[in-house]
Write a structure and sequence with these properties.
This is Sugar phosphate isomerase/epimerase. It comes from Streptomyces achmelvichensis. This protein has about 300 residues and is an alpha/beta fold. The chain is about 40% helix and about 15% strand. The protein is built from eleven helices and ten strands. It is globular and about 50 Å long. The chain starts with 10 loop residues before the first strand and ends with a helix.
Length: about 300
């Protein structure tokens, strides 16, 4: 008897330190990196992201040894940027990006996930700047992101994938569309995070169908619609919202991941789909059983 579940043979599933409650390079509330690597492999994943730079060993020889003996490979590194501030922040941005890009390349990965800066602090909720960009800031954001895409490609052979994120300026359907329409597809692709996009009111399947050629990478995540409604109604910042459990274990939240994966498979390109369930902070024994169940669920979807 053959399975009725279609094989998502172009989707490469992985997980990330984020799914183990890791948000910072060093934090006593987080599990040690050795435990993360042991558990992510035991949960059935082959691919991981680097997470916050400095959490995993930054020496490529050591990291290659640690990942290889667990049967793991790296899909991407992650950088944080405030490129809407214009050329004045370029040198500072590049200093942050270059070390991470070098490690990402040394690990054989091809992608750099780019997260725009937050307009309010994700821990304290303090408003850092206006949540709406001016036209000039939009021009700076798109121009400097293209510059980053060019430099990262030329110097490190990597592709940048920009991650729409809650409490940043690239968040909603309107802002994501505006960003994509104003950037060069040859230089800038998107990391579609299904949870963050739903958090900000977007439809992941619609985005894939509309901007398919711009989708370069996926983060698989779900939100609890009841908690999200409270978060939106009370304007709760992203960090405390995560503490309330707004990002939840699949398949209990939204969006449904099967249609997202089916739409992604239909693009007919190889795509990483990295599980990222924001859980900072969380008890050290909580992530592993969730990771194992999530991997089992994704297999039931054909991934």
């Amino acid at each position: 008897m053959t399975s009725s579940v279609p094989s998502l043979n172009r989707i490469r599933v992985g997980s990330a330190p984020d799914s183990w409650g890791v948000w910072f390079p060093d934090d006593p509330q987080q599990v040690p990196w050795q435990r993360f690597l042991d558990e992510v492999a035991d949960a059935g994943y082959e691919w991981i992201e680097l997470g916050p730079y400095g959490y995993l060993p930054s020496d490529p020889v050591r990291l290659a040894e640690e990942t290889a003996r667990r049967g793991l490979k790296v899909s991407a590194g992650t950088v944080f940027t405030g490129l809407h501030h214009g050329p004045s922040v370029w040198e500072k941005t590049w200093a942050h990006v270059s070390d991470i890009a070098a490690l990402t390349r040394a690990m054989g990965a091809e992608h750099l996930v780019v997260i725009p800066s937050f307009w309010r602090d994700d821990k304290t909720g303090e408003v850092l700047e206006d949540r709406t960009l001016t036209p000039e800031q939009w021009r700076d954001l798109t121009a400097q992101t293209e510059r980053l895409g060019h430099e990262v490609r030329e110097r490190y052979g990597l592709k940048i994938v920009v991650h729409p994120h809650a409490d940043t300026h690239v968040d909603s359907e309107e802002n994501v569309g505006r960003f994509l329409d104003a950037t060069d597809p040859a230089l800038v692709s998107l990391c579609l995070d299904t949870g963050h996009y739903a958090y900000c009111g977007g439809d992941s399947v619609k985005l894939i169908e509309t901007y398919g050629e711009r989708i370069g990478y996926l983060h698989l995540k779900q939100v609890d619609p009841d908690i999200l409604a409270e978060v939106v109604a009370h304007e709760v910042p992203f960090g405390p919202a995560v503490g309330r459990g707004v990002m939840c274990e699949p398949p209990s939240g939204i969006p449904a991941l099967e249609p997202v994966l089916t739409a992604a498979q239909a693009l007919d390109v190889e795509l990483f789909a990295i599980v990222e369930q924001d859980m900072y902070p969380c008890p050290p024994d909580k992530p592993f059983p969730i990771a194992r169940r999530t991997r089992r669920f994704l297999r039931s979807c054909g991934a």
